[in-house]
Amino acid sequence: MKIIISNTAESPLYQQIEDQIKDAILKGDLVEGDPLPSIRGFANDLKVSVLTIRRVYEELEQEGFVTSQVGIGTFVSASNIDLLRDSKRRIVEQKMQDMIQTAKSLNITKEELNAMMDILYEGD
Questions:
Q1: CB count in 10 Å sphere of residue 91
Q2: pLDDT digit string (tens) for 31-45?
Q3: CATH classification of 13-76, choosing from 3.60.10.10, 1.10.10.10, 2.170.190.11, 1.10.760.10?
Q4: Predicted confidence (pLDDT) at residue 92 exceeds the cutoff of 70
Q5: Kindly report the CA angle at 91 between 47 and 77, in degrees rounded to 5?
Q6: Cα 12 to chain center, whole Å?
Q7: 83 three-state secondary structure
Q8: Domains in the chain: boundaries
């Protein structure tokens, strides 16, 4: 798992890490049962405080993205699969809303937009 953090970003380090882990889960790069790195090892790799990683793991667990087992580790959880699906849909809906607003501002009709989407969707 590759995590990139920036000291100059507006969001705090723990939020950057948490968001990237969630993104990996939502994209399927991390799947149910996959172990996350140990808190200490992950903190060393990212050169951040152990407390930062502990906070990330605690928040991910509260939100249902991971489960922690004392002495064993932290693992990706699918117990909140509806949350994962809803999160994926929200991401797509936001991008579609942006696309629709842009199309309207350029006087592109719904039919033209649908035709473009069909072409692009089939192209991949």
A1: 13
A2: 889 999 999 999 999
A3: 1.10.10.10
A4: yes
A5: 60
A6: 16
A7: helix
A8: 13-76, 81-123
